[in-house]
Amino acid sequence: MSDQIQFIVEKLNQEPFRKNYNLITFDSLESMQLLQLLNDVLGEIDPKHAVDIREELPEQTAKRMLSLLGILKYKPPGSVSDLSAFRQGLVTGSKPVIHPVLHWLLQRTNELKKRAYLARFLVKLEVPAEFLQDDTVADINKQYEELMEAFKNLHKECEQLKTSGLSTAEIRRDISAMEEEKDQLIKRVERLKKRVETVQNHQRMLEIARQLRLEKEREESLAQQKQEQKNQLFHAEQRLQRAQLQLKEMHHAVVDSKPESLMKKLEEEINFNSYLVTEKIPRELESKKNSTYFLQKVVAEPAMSQSDLNALETKINEVNAQINQLIEKRMMKYEPIDSKFSMYRQQASIISRKKEAKAEELQAAKEEMASAERQMLQKTNQAHELEGSEVLKGDEFKHYVNKLRSKNTFYKKKRLEIAEITAEYGILQRTEELLKQRHEAIQQQLQAIEDKKGISGYSYTQEELERVSAVKSEMDEKKGRTLDNMSEMVKKLNIMVAEKKASLAPVIKELRQLRQKCQELTQECDEKKIQYDSCAAGLESNRSTLEQEVKGLLEECVQEESNYHYINCMKRNLEIQLQRAKEEMKAYVSPDPQERRKAIREQYTRMILEQENLGKKLREKQKVVRESHGPNMKQIKMWQDFEQLMECKRECFLKQQNQTAIGQVIQEGGKDRLVL
Fold first, then answer.
1. What is the pLDDT of residue 652?
2. Would you say 53 and 114 are in contact if contact means Cβ atoms under 8 Å apart?
3. Where does the pLDDT of residue 456 fall: very low under 50, low under 70, confident under 90, or very high at 90 and above?
4. Distance CA 90, CA 81 (A)
5. Is the pLDDT of residue 505 over 70?
6. What is the mean pLDDT of residues 187-215?
7. Which of 63-67, 453-457, 555-559 has the highest mean pLDDT?
8. In what residue span(s) does the IFT81 calponin homology domain sit (predicted)?
C-alpha cells in the first residue's frame, strides 16, 4: 500500500499536475479533496471531465466518473468487488476506493487518453427499436455506423503511418527535391529545344530520333520476350526430363514388381490420400479457421495493457486448476466400467495420435523425396552442360539405396516407438501422481478412523499381508506361464533361425559380389570426381580472370564515352558563344543604325540612359516634396484647430438651447400654480 501511495505522489508531482505533495500531505487530504484530485486526473485523460465537483451533485459526479471508468475498462479490485459498495465509496471519497483508481489511472495515462479519445467516436448510441421503424431515423443510423467504420479504418491507417517511420518533414524534403529536379529538367528541355531550333531540318531529325527510340523500345521488348521464351523452353525441358525420369522409374518398377504389389501400393496411396482428404486436412482447416476467428476477435477488441494480460493469465490459471480438481474428483469416484471405457478411450487416442504422426511423417517423406528428385534433376542438368552425359545411373546403386531405405525405415520406426513410449510415460506419470494423492488422502482418512477406534496400524498390517499373499500367488502363476512361454519361444526361434539361414544363404553370396562391385565403383567415382574438381577449378579461375578483364575494359569504354560526350558538349557551347560574339561584333560595327540598335551594347546603353533620366526626375520630385512638407504640416495643424473650435461652438450652442427650454418649463409651472 505504501508503494502504491508513493507512486501516486510521484506521478502527481510531475507534469502536467505539479501538485507538490508528499506522503503526509497526500494522506491528510479530505474526501472532497480526493474526489477533486481524481476528477483532475480524469480531466487530464478526457477534457470533458475537467470540471469543479462543487458545482454538481455528488450523484452526478459519481455517475459521470463511473461512466468514464467503464469506458476505460477499469475493474474494481477484489476487496471492493461489490459494485454498490464501490459506488458508495466513490460518492463519499473513501481512500480504499480512490487510491487504487488513482494508481491504475496514473500507470497508463497515455494509453487511457487514446482510449478516451476513441470512445468519443466509437461508443455507439443505442437507438430504440421503435424509432428505427422510421425510414429517416434508420438511414441516419446507417450513415452513423458507416462513418464509425470509416473512422476506425482511418485511425488504423494513421497509426500505421505513425509507426512506419515516415515523417512529414522527410516527405516535404522529397517533394521539394523532386520539384527542383522537375524545374531543372524543364529548363534543360527548353535549352535543348532552343539549341535544336537553330539546326537545319530539326523536325525531321526529331522524328528520326523518335522512331529510333521506338525501335529501341521494341528491341528491348523483343529481347525480353526472347528471354521469357528461353526460360519457358528451359522449364519445358526440365519437365520433359522429369517425366522421362519418372517413366524410367516406372518401367523399372514394373519390371521388378508384380501386379499384386502394384495394386497394394495403389491401395495404400488411395487410403493415405483419403485419410488426408477426409480427416487430416478438414481438421487442420477447422483449427486454422478457429484460430483466424479468435485472432480477428482479438484485433477487433481495443488494445490491452499489461495489467489486463496479467488478469487474464491469472484467470486462465484458476480455470486450469479447477479443471484439474474436477478431473481428480472424477478419477477418485470412477467405477470399473468407467475405467474400462477410459482405458479404451486412451488406447483409441494413442492409436489416433500414432495415425496422425504416421501421416505427417509420410507427408514429410514425400516432400523430402520430391525435393531430392528436384535436386537430382538440377545436378543432372549441370552434368549435361559440363560433360554432355549422365554421371550416375540409378541401377548401379539400387541395392545401396534399398539398404539406406531400410535403415531409414528402421530409424523412423524406432523414433516413433520412442515418441510413443515418451507419451505413455507422461500419461502413466500423471496417473501415478493422481493415484498417489488419492492413496494418501484415503490413508489419512483410514488412519484417523483407526486412531478414533483405538486400533492404529491395523489396516497397514492387513494390507501388507494381503499384498504379500497376492504377490506370492502372482509370482507362482507368472513362473508357470513364463516357463511354458519360454519353451515354446525357444522352439519357434530355432525353427525361424534355420529357415532364415536357408533363405539368406544365396542372398549373402550375391551381397558379397555386389559389395565388391560397389567398392570398385566407389573408387572409380572418387577418381572421376577428383578429375572433375580439378578441371572445374581451372575453368573457374580462367573465367574469373576473363570477367575481370572484360569488366575493366567496359568501365574504361564507358569513361571514354562520357569524356567524348562532355568534350563535344563543351565544344558546342563554345561554338554558340563564339557565334553570338561574332553577331554582336557585326551589329556593333555595321554602318546601318537599325542593325546597330539591335546590338546588345546599344540596348544596354539606352536602358542606362532611361534609368538615369528616371532617377533624375525622382530626385526632383523628392526635393519638391521635402520643400513643401513644412507648410503642409502647418496647414494640417490649423485645420485641426479650426475643427476643435467649431466642435466647442456646437457644444455651447446645444447647452444654451437646453437651458432656455428648462426656463420656459419652470415659468409655465409657476403660472399654473398661481391660477390654482
1. 92
2. no
3. low
4. 13
5. yes
6. 81
7. 555-559
8. 3-126
Q: What angle do CA 156, 160, 166 make, to 5 degrees?
A: 145
Q: Which amino acid is at 217?
A: E
CA–CA gap between residue 589 and residue 599 (Å, rounded)? 9
What single-letter amino acid sits at 36?
Answer: Q
CA distances from 287 to 139, 172, 210, 292, 301 (A): 39, 47, 61, 8, 21
The CA-to-CA distance between both ends of the chain, in Å, stands at 95
Residue 66 CB contacts under 8 Å (≥ 6 apart), including other chains: 87, 90
Cell numbers 526632383 correspond to 620
| 3-class secondary structure per residue, 171-219 | HHHHHHHHHHHHHHHHHHHHHHHHHHHCCCCHHHHHHHHHHHHHHHHHH
In the structure grid, which three cell numbers stand for residue 375, read together?
A: 535436386
Cell of 612: 538615369
Q: Which three cell numbers stand for residue 366?
A: 514425400
Distance CA 480, CA 502 (A): 34
pLDDT at 165: 56
| Residue-by-residue DSSP string for 490-515 | HHHHHHHHHHHHHHHHHHHHHHHHHH
How far is residue 88's CA from residue 84's CA, in Å, rounded to a whole number? 6
C-alpha cell belonging to residue 480 = 508357470
In the 3-class helix/strand/coil scheme, how is 40-109 assigned residue by residue? Answer: HHHHHHCHHHCCCHHHCCHHHHHHHHHHHHHHCCCCCCHHHCCHHHHHHHHHHCCHHHHHHHHHHHHHCH
Rg of the chain over Cα atoms, rounded to whole angstroms, equals 51
Measured in degrees and rounded to the nearest 5, phi and psi for residue 392 equal -130, 155
What is the C-alpha separation between 72 and 66, in angstroms, rounded? 10
- Say yes or no to pLDDT of 98 above 60: yes
Half-sphere exposure of residue 300, counting CA atoms within 13 Å on the CB side?
Answer: 7
Distances (CA, A) of 58 to 54, 75, 118: 9, 21, 27
Q: Is the pTM of this model over 0.85?
A: no
Question: Domain 1-123 belongs to what architecture?
Answer: Orthogonal Bundle (1.10)
Cell matching residue 433 = 501422481
Peptide bond before residue 16 is cis, with ω within 30 degrees of 0 = yes
Report the Cα 506 to chain-centroid distance in Å: 65
618: left (phi over 0), alpha (psi -120 to 50) or beta: alpha
